[in-house]
Task: inverse folding
C-alpha cells in the first residue's frame, strides 16, 4: 500500500531502502523454511532412517535430533553469508528501478511496462535464475565462483542506482536553491533595493 498511496517518498534512494528491507525480510522467512526442511528435517530423517550405530529408538531419536539441529544451524550460517548478495540486493534493484519511473506520482500498472523499469528489473530476475541454475555449481573453493559473480553484478547495479539517486537529490536541491534565489531577487526588486546580478 506504501507504493500506491504515499507520494512522499519519491526518490530512487527511497525505493532502494524499501526494496532492501523487503528483500531482507523475505530472505529471513525463506531461510527459516529451508533451515527446517533442508536442514533439520533432512538431517533428522537421514540419521534416523540410516541408524548408523544400530541404536535403540530413544537413543536414536536423541542423536537424530542433534544431527538435524546441526544441519539446520549449518544451513542458517551458510545462507547468512550470502544474504546481502541475494534477496536484499535483488529487491533493492527492483524497487529502485520502479521508483526511478514512479517518482512523485501514484503507482500505476503501466509503470511496470516502462522500458526504463524493465531494463533494470531484468537484472535481479536473471541473477536469481542464474543463482538457482546448475551452472557454475562446484564443490569446495570453486563453489565461491557463482556467489562472487552474482554479488559483483548485483552490487554494481545497486551502486549505480545509488549514484543516480544521489544525482537526483543534488539536482532537486540545486533547483530549489535557484527558485529561492529568484524569489529573493524578486522581493529585493519590488522593495526598491538593488537587485544583484547573477554571476
Result:
Amino acid at each position: 500500500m506504501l507504493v500506491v498511496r504515499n507520494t512522499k517518498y519519491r526518490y530512487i534512494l527511497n525505493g532502494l531502502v524499501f526494496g532492501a528491507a523487503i528483500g531482507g525480510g523475505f530472505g529471513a522467512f525463506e531461510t527459516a523454511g529451508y533451515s527446517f526442511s533442508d536442514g533439520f528435517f533432512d538431517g533428522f530423517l537421514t540419521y534416523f532412517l540410516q541408524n548408523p550405530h544400530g541404536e535403540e529408538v530413544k537413543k536414536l531419536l536423541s542423536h537424530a535430533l542433534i544431527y538435524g539441529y546441526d544441519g539446520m544451524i549449518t544451513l542458517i550460517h551458510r545462507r547468512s553469508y550470502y544474504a546481502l548478495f541475494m534477496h536484499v540486493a535483488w529487491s533493492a534493484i527492483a524497487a529502485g528501478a520502479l521508483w526511478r519511473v514512479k517518482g512523485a506520482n501514484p503507482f500505476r500498472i503501466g509503470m511496470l511496462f516502462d522500458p526504463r523499469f524493465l531494463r533494470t528489473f531484468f537484472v535481479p530476475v536473471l541473477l536469481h535464475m542464474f543463482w538457482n541454475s546448475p551452472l557454475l555449481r562446484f564443490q569446495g573453493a570453486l563453489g565461491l565462483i557463482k556467489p562472487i559473480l552474482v554479488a559483483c553484478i548485483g552490487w554494481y547495479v545497486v551502486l549505480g542506482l545509488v549514484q543516480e539517486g544521489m544525482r537526483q537529490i543534488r539536482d532537486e536541491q540545486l533547483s530549489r536553491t535557484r527558485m529561492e534565489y529568484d524569489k529573493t531577487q524578486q522581493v529585493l526588486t519590488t522593495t526598491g533595493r538593488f537587485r544583484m546580478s547573477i554571476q
User: Anything to note?
Assistant: The longest helix spans residues 145-190.
